[in-house]
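Bug report

Summary: structure tokens for cytochrome-c oxidase differ between web form and batch submission.
Environment: batch mode, default settings.
Steps: 1) Submit the sequence below via batch. 2) Compare with the web form result.

Sequence submitted:
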Amino acid sequence: MSGGSYYVPASSKWPILGSLALGAMMVGAGTVLVYGVAGTPVMVIGLVGILVVMTLWFRDVIRESRRGLYNDQMDRSFRWGMGWFIFSEVMFFAAFFGTLFYVRTFALPWLDGEGAKGVTALLWPDFTASWPLMNPPGSEIQGPKETFSPWHLPLVNTLILVSSSITLTVAHEGLKEGYRGTVRHWLTGTVLLGLVFITIQGFEYYEAYTHYGITLQAGIYGATFFLLTGFHGLHVIIGTIILIAILGRVLRGHFSANDHFGFEAAAWYWHFVDAVWIGLFLFVYVF
């Protein structure tokens, strides 16, 4: 299409089908939380439906792009959409970081008798505030046995993710210069680094549950640890899948030096995930 024309997409069934699949997954998940495994089939059907809709919807978008149907207006629309999506992800993680900071800065000192609400120390008069919280107030909650040293597996994973941002940037620059071999090699390296990160994270979780006593039931430390690192790990898995799909498109000859927003959007997402990990490394493991 010409750069000045306004693109009107064809009618699509994917939005309504995606909404129905998402609704089914949420109904199933809610049923699982309330009634147990009874809601599992509905949840699984909804999840599979979402994955199928996403795959076919992205397929259609790729085909439309390859046919040259998109113009500058559509390019701006995609960029704004991806920008707002990443902003929503920023706010998502801000909520969990906010929980961590609130507990450490306000709730624990209050329970120890400090601050404006120090009267809450009457609940557990023998409680002593500290972080990581190894001895939660109340004998019914068992805290973790010990915590991870930030200078072993967490540091290794930090170096891996930082390196993956560098390799992805090299691949991106190669694409802008038209060096497709560079793109293939460095993007493959990025995918491999992502897979290594996921593997190490899985091993860390195994160690947390079997040897360190860090579980979701291990007080506020265990809960915040798994909420922050777990959701981040899920984002790394999603990001790795995205990069694998982008690598497949690169191998099929998609993208050009001046038309590669699919690659660019994946890079935005991956760099965001890397930035979140830096915050996790500092405030969950180090400080």
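Above is the batch result. After comparison, the two runs are identical; trailing whitespace caused the diff. The domain at 12-69 is CATH 1.10.287 (Helix Hairpins). DSSP finds seven helices and no strands in the chain.
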